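Changelog note: in this version the structure field was regenerated for every chain. One regenerated record is shown below for reference.
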Amino acid sequence: MSEHSHRHNKEGPCHFSLMSLSALRRLLSVSVPLLVLWLMVWWANGWAS
């Protein structure tokens, strides 16, 4: 049961890769909608001018 608890152990690359994957997913889930919104604004301004 100890491997299921949330402990920050120094050894074991699996823990680091899981943490970086979740961080990457959080970064993408925030940046992708912002990028789409920015592209829509840029496209609308290009049509307006």
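Spot check on this record: The chain is about 75% helix and 0% strand. The CA atoms of residues 9 and 34 lie 34 Å apart.
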